[in-house]
Structure formats: structure tokens, C-alpha cells
């Protein structure tokens, strides 16, 4: 459970108030569970561990639990889910902020919640300042398969091939909780073997006819005819042209980093769970030169503007950009 958690969580050794917020519910829950396991003594949990819901607990109950010292243990752990519900009560806000500013001895208060979109409430700003605040932003959709591969290896001891992870994400969606459950099911099915594309098929999971992540690799590998053939399938499956352009831009920029600095440079710009893909990006980068990549990225910028303003069909516009990759511009040195 630890390898993919933020350092602020993994390194926690002292008590106080932890504010776990953000839209990634799965990783928030994992972090809260990790903190509970780290601080709550297993032998005395009946006395020293309280699970509360911000939408249900009274201010009096909250204040009483926070003020109660640990019994026969070093720490008393209070885990509050739906902590955003406390923001509506001035007294609850006062209790929480006071605990964060001056934590009672032996207290570990875990506030797990979601700050409302565009909220300007001072409570959240103050809580971020005085508590140990960690935000869990959703893993970008295009990084989910790589995250799943890393999670399976680090946390479940399971080998999941990247292509299988891509198929799972394409079929199931990007909810990390659902994806990890599917991996556990498939791992149990295959036993000691890896979770590969055959396992995904045998598991009865409906695989998209065109995998979006595989399609980015097809473009990166300059297999233009194959990319053109897969484009209408992606759009029929519900992908948007603008979404594809955004993801392609990221992909090609990473190829540029690989071209300039090699695998090490790519690893530095990739999230930790995606660094294993550096070798693949370096291999694709060898198929381009600097002028080609610059032209392709400029073309994507123009394509994005056209998609948002032009009456021309989206598929036609993207296909035009793909065909433009066949014309291979050369840099001033004429490098291949």
C-alpha cells in the first residue's frame, strides 16, 4: 500500500491533524487506511480508534472524541470521512482548526473530504495552512494504465502487462477502485502467470475495438495508415477529437524529451508510476527528427483551434493532420 502514496503520508511518524482532500476518492481512502494502520495500535483499537462521518457527528461528540487521550497506547486515532460537512458549522470549524493549531498529546485526527469546486471558504484555506494537508488529484486518464501496472507490481505483487492495463482501462473506465478490483479477479484467475491481454479476454471483459493508448503508440510509431483506420473507431466509441489532440500533444512532447535527453530525461518528466514506459518512448523518438516533431506539435495546436471553431467534420480534420505526418520535413542539418 505504501509505494504509490505521497511522501508526506509514507513518512508520517508524528501525530496531529491530517487533511486528505481532492477528487481521487480511491487514493484518499488508501492514504487514510495507511495512517490508521500506522498509528492505531492493533491491541487497543477498541479504545483508541474512532470512525466518524462529518455529515452525522455532532459538534459535542467531535469535540469529546478529539479531547479524549489515548488509553494504554501512544496514539488515539480519529478518522472523519465527509469532513467537508463540518465546514457548515462555525463551532465544528473552531474545534477542528484548534486541534490542528494545537493538537492534544497523542491525537491523530484524519480528515478525509472533498473541497467543493471553486469554494473560497476560509475554513479550507486555514485547514491547509495549519494541518498536514495532502491533495489527491485524479490520475490523468492517459496515465491510468501505467499507474495500474505499477500498482499491481508494487502493491499486489502481480505482473500486469501494459497492453492488458490499457484494455482494462478502455473497457472498465478510469475509476482506480474498480480497476484494482478487476486486476485482483484476473490475478486469481491466472494464478502465478501474468495478467495479459489473453487473460483480459478470458475474464469476460469487453475490450474496445480500438484501444486509445495503443493508438497513441501507433501514431508515435509513425504507422499512419493504421492510425487513420483506427481513428473513426475511436470516435465511434465515444472519444472526442479534442481529447485525442490533447493526449497526442503530451505524447509527442514526451518523444521530444526522449529525443533530446534519452531515457533518463523522460523518466524525470514522467510520474513515478509511468517511468517504466521511458524505453518505449525512446524507441518511438528514434523514428522522428526534431523538425518533424516540431511540425507535428504545431499542427496539433492548429488542429485544436480548428476543432473548436471550424464547421468541418472532426474526423476529417484529425485525418488531415495524420496524413500530414507522411510528409517528412527535415531540419537544417538534414538529419533522418
Write the layout of secondary structure elements.
Layout: H1 7-10, E1 16-21, H2 25-39, H3 45-48, E2 49-53, H4 59-67, E3 76-81, H5 90-101, E4 107-112, H6 122-130, E5 132-135, H7 144-156, H8 162-172, H9 176-190, H10 197-202, H11 212-220, H12 224-236, H13 241-269, H14 278-285, H15 290-309, H16 314-324
Parallel strand pairs: 1-4, 1-5, 2-3, 3-4
Helix pairs in contact: 4-5, 5-6, 7-8, 7-9, 11-12, 11-13, 12-16, 13-14, 13-15, 15-16
Fold and architecture overview:
- The protein has 336 residues and is α/β, with parallel strands linked by helices.
- 56% of the residues lie in helices and 8% in strands.
- The protein has a 5-stranded parallel β-sheet with strand order 2-3-4-1-5, sandwiched between helices.
- Helix 5 runs parallel beside helix 6 (122-130), helix 7 crosses helix 9 (176-190) and helix 13 runs antiparallel to helix 15.
- The longest helix has 29 residues, at 241-269.
- It is elongated.
Amino acid at each position: 500500500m505504501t509505494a504509490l502514496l505521497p511522501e508526506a503520508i509514507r513518512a508520517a511518524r508524528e501525530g496531529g491533524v491530517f487533511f486528505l482532500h481532492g477528487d481521487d476518492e480511491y487514493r484518499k481512502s488508501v492514504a487514510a487506511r495507511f495512517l490508521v494502520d500506522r498509528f492505531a495500535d492493533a491491541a487497543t483499537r477498541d479504545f483508541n480508534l474512532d470512525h466518524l462521518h462529518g455529515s452525522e457527528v455532532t459538534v459535542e461528540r467531535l469535540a469529546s472524541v478529539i479531547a479524549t487521550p489515548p488509553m494504554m497506547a501512544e496514539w488515539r486515532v480519529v478518522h472523519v470521512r465527509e469532513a467537508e460537512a463540518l465546514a457548515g458549522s462555525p463551532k465544528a470549524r473552531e474545534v477542528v482548526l484548534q486541534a490542528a493549531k494545537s493538537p492534544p498529546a497523542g491525537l491523530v485526527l484524519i480528515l478525509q473530504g472533498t473541497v467543493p469546486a471553486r469554494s473560497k471558504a476560509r475554513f479550507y484555506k486555514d485547514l491547509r495552512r495549519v494541518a498536514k494537508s495532502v491533495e489527491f488529484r485524479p490520475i490523468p486518464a492517459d496515465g491510468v494504465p501505467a499507474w495500474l501496472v505499477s500498482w499491481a507490481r508494487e502493491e499486489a505483487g502481480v505482473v500486469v502487462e501494459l497492453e492488458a492495463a490499457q484494455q482494462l482501462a478502455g473497457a472498465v473506465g478510469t475509476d482506480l477502485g474498480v480497476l484494482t478490483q478487476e486486476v485482483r479477479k484476473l490475478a486469481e484467475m491466472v494464478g502465478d502467470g501474468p495478467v495479459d491481454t489473453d487473460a483480459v479476454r478470458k475474464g469476460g471483459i469487453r475490450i474496445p475495438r480500438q484501444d486509445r493508448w495503443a493508438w497513441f503508440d501507433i501514431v508515435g510509431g509513425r504507422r499512419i495508415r493504421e492510425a487513420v483506420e483506427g481513428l473513426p473507431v475511436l470516435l465511434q466509441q465515444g472519444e472526442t477529437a479534442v481529447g485525442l489532440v490533447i493526449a497526442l500533444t503530451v505524447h509527442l512532447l514526451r518523444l521530444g524529451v526522449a529525443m533530446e535527453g534519452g531515457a533518463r530525461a523522460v523518466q524525470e518528466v514522467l510520474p513515478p508510476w509511468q517511468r517504466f514506459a521511458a524505453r518505449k518512448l525512446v524507441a518511438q523518438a528514434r523514428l522522428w527528427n526534431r523538425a518533424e516533431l516540431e511540425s507535428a506539435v504545431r499542427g496539433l495546436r492548429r488542429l485544436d483551434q480548428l476543432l473548436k471553431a471550424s464547421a468541418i467534420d472532426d474526423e476529417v480534420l484529425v485525418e488531415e493532420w495524420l496524413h500530414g505526418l507522411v510528409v517528412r520535413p527535415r531540419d537544417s542539418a538534414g538529419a533522418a
